[in-house]
Design a protein that fits this description.
Layout (H helix, E strand, L loop, with lengths): L3 E3 L5 H7 L5 E3 L6 E3 L4 E5 L4 E5 L7 H12 L4 E5 L2 H16 L1 H6 L5 H14 L2 H14 L4 H16 L5 H7 L6
Parallel strand pairs: 1-4, 5-6
Antiparallel strand pairs: 2-3, 4-5
C-alpha cells in the first residue's frame, strides 16, 4: 500500500484514483477487491497541496491532525479528507479545468489559488457532495450510468461557478427526492 503519493513523480496515480483502482486489496478468502483502509498522503506539488487522506476516521483524528500540521505545516495548503470521494472529485475538478479551454477562460474563479480554495470549501462543506458520493458509488456498482454521474458533476460545476442559468434545475435535481 502506498503511504505517500507525489503526483509530480507519479502522474498515473491520478488516473488510478479517478478509476477507483488505487490501493486495492484482494481478499485471500473470497477474492473480492476492496479499497484499502490505510491512510496516505496525496501531494500535488504544482498546486502546493498536501492532503492527508483517511479512508476511515481514526478515533484520535484531532491529535493526528495536530501532529501532521506540526510536521508538514510548511505546505501552502494542507488539508484532511475523510472520504475518498473528496479526493476523487478534487482530481476530477483539477483535470476538468486543465483540459477544458472554455471553463478556464470563462470561469468565475480568479487564479489557481482562489480556484483551489473554492474547490476545497465545496469538497468539505457542500451538501451536494453526498449526491456526488451516492451517484459515484452507484455508477461504480452499475446501478447508475456514467451519464447519471456526468449530470451530477455538471450540476456541481454549475453550483461551483455560481451560474444562474439552469440552476433551478440543479436544485430540483439534488433536492429531497435525490436522484
Amino acid at each position: 500500500m502506498a503511504s505517500w503519493i507525489d503526483t509530480s513523480r507519479t502522474p498515473r496515480v491520478k488516473t488510478l484514483l479517478l478509476n477507483w483502482e488505487f490501493n486495492i486489496v484482494i481478499c485471500p478468502h473470497c477474492g473480492n477487491r476492496l479499497y484499502s483502509d490505510a491512510p496516505f498522503f496525496y501531494e500535488d506539488f504544482a498546486e502546493g497541496l498536501l492532503v492527508a487522506v483517511f479512508p476511515s476516521i481514526p478515533k484520535n483524528h484531532l491529535s493526528i491532525e495536530a501532529d501532521i500540521r506540526q510536521e508538514y505545516g510548511y505546505y501552502p495548503t494542507l488539508e484532511f479528507f475523510y472520504d475518498m470521494t473528496q479526493l476523487w472529485f478534487l482530481i476530477y475538478l483539477q483535470e476538468y479545468y486543465k483540459t477544458n479551454v472554455y471553463p478556464r477562460a470563462e470561469s468565475n474563479f480568479g487564479g489557481a489559488d482562489e480556484r483551489l480554495r473554492m474547490f476545497l470549501q465545496f469538497l468539505k462543506k457542500d451538501p451536494m457532495m453526498l449526491t456526488i458520493r451516492e451517484t459515484l458509488v452507484k455508477s461504480l456498482l452499475g446501478v447508475k450510468t456514467n451519464d447519471d454521474l456526468q449530470n451530477v458533476l455538471w450540476y456541481a460545476l454549475v453550483k461551483l461557478e455560481g451560474m444562474s442559468y439552469g440552476f433551478s434545475e440543479a436544485s430540483a435535481f439534488v433536492g429531497p427526492r435525490g436522484i
